[in-house]
Design brief:
- The structure is a single chain.
- This protein is 66% helix and 1% strand.
- By secondary structure, the chain is mostly helical.
- A two-stranded antiparallel ribbon has the order 1-2.
- The longest helix has 29 residues, at 16-44.
- The protein is globular, with a radius of gyration of 22 Å.
- The relative contact order is 0.20.
Length: 461
Amino acid sequence: MTTTVPVHPVDEVPPVRQLAAFGLQHVLAMYAGAVAVPLIVGGAMKLSPADLAYLITADLLVCGIATLIQCVGFWRVGVRLPIMQGCTFAAVSPMVLIGTTGGGLPAIYGSVIVAGLAIVLLAPVFGKLLRFFPPLVTGTAILIIGVSLLPVAGNWAAGGAGSKDFGIPKNLGLALFVLLLVLGVQRFAPAFLSRIAVLIGIAVGLAVAIPFGFTDFGGVGDADWLGISTPFHFGAPTFHVSAIVSMLVVALVTMTETTGDLIAVGEMTGRAVEPRSLADGLRADGLSTVLGGVFNTFPYTAYAQNVGLVGMTRVRSRWVVAAAGGILVLLGLLPKLGAVVAAIPAPVLGGAGLVMFGTVAASGLRTLAQVDFKDNHNLTVVAVSVAVGMLPVGVPTVYEKFPDWIQTVMDSGISAGCLTAIVLNLLFNHLPAKATSVPEADGLPSGGGEQGVEESREEVV
């Protein structure tokens, strides 16, 4: 008799109709964030509408390619987990500064290419640092990621930051309707439908929004049927030292954020991230960022909102997210399809976003439940890290008087909080602090009973 080796849920390939539905759900969850970066950068540089449209379609195309690289993988590139890739917001401020001070888009793309190559080279180094990301650090990082994203969902629910009707009752009412619909489908619908609750909520919310004048599809008729991004469309890249330095700082920030996201998805899916797979995932980030610089777009990283979607739907197959990458490639090649998705009103996305981003934060609390908080300093690590992470979220201008490189690191609550958690964990749990500290197997004293530092990640999960 022949025995079949059981397939891990991450490697399962669902039926085609489920792949399409689950994949589209991931696309809708990240679409607004994906197109926001080229819109912000292009708008700050006062690009023409045609150039803005070109940036968006190029971004969607490379988003799809980057997602396929991360999920499917080849050789030592790609973590092979359900990870959605998109443009990082950490690079927005430096890119606007580079683009508006004389360098233009060629200077941005030159610095992006160098940053991508740096990420590829540094990936093995970060992989070896995985032992410094125990459940205390990863749980705190995941909690900060979720809470930091909630204001984004709040802005969407109110109509989108900067919109003329921001905060009017009908916007919040539509967001509440979508939120309740998602919860109702998840609670009462059959298993398959409950797993696409976000997709159903967005689709029904869009159907309700159209007759009430929340959106129109006028832009669909103006969009081209076919659009192909060509390398160096805006000119050959130029390399300025100041631009490269600022983008290298961004690279370190995005590597830290991606590490937290990869570990979070690994815990959610039951396939723990090891040093080698972490390096593979970061290497995919670097390669995608290089492609971004070549094909007229920006640095790439794992998207935390899709991490929340994985936790919420419990669909762990990486092929679902690979299907989402394929859809993004189509949207990048067919601008008319992209215009249809872009017509979804912000309050609809806000209602769904509240559930997804809240799920990320709740996943962080679940990870922290694994940690021992008795007779040690672990509570202090969590408290201070969350406080530092929330500071730029609650007071966005708190660091505006600091040098640009400090703003790049600290303006992102995610990177600020994650870095704080890493440093405080080293201070309290790895450096000798008390005479009663018990030496660990690797010779580093634990300093106070952190659970899960020496245990294998599989046992902790």
